[in-house]
Amino acid sequence: MSLSRPVIEIEQLIFAWPKHPPVLDLPNLSIQAGEQVFLRGPSGIGKSTLLNLLGGLITPQQGQIRLLGQPISTWRQSRRDRFRADHLGILFQQFNLLPYLSLLENTLLPCQFSALRKQRALNEHASLAASAQALLEPLQLGELLHTTRPVTTLSIGQQQRVAAARALIGQPEILLADEPTSALDADTRDLFIELLLSLCRLHQTTLVFVSHDLSLSTHFDRVLDLNQMNRCSGVT
Ligand SMILES: Nc1ncnc2c1ncn2[C@@H]1O[C@H](COP(=O)(O)OP(=O)(O)OP(=O)(O)O)[C@@H](O)[C@H]1O
Question: Could you tell me which residue ranges the ABC transporter domain spans (predicted)?
Answer without folding.
Answer: 8-236
